[in-house]
Write a structure and sequence with these properties.
- It is a single chain.
- This protein is α+β, with helices and mostly antiparallel strands and 64 residues long.
- 23% of the residues lie in helices and 31% in strands.
- It has one helix and four strands.
- Strands 1, 2, 3 and 4 form a four-stranded antiparallel β-sheet that branches.
- The relative contact order is 0.18.
Amino acid sequence: MLANPSEDKPTFGLVTNGSNFIFLKLIKQNIPKYALSDEFTLLKRKNELYQVLSVLKNLSQILS
């Protein structure tokens, strides 16, 4: 994420192990600032796949 040449827009990322998902946001400044989302999981009683897909959809609209 730090290697992204665009410094005027935030950089987004996704970390997953296949069943847990965390979204990342990086704002480049003199000191980079990261923001982490809540952890979404597919293995608990409440399947959060739809929330993960919703975040991905919103990110695709922002980046388009």
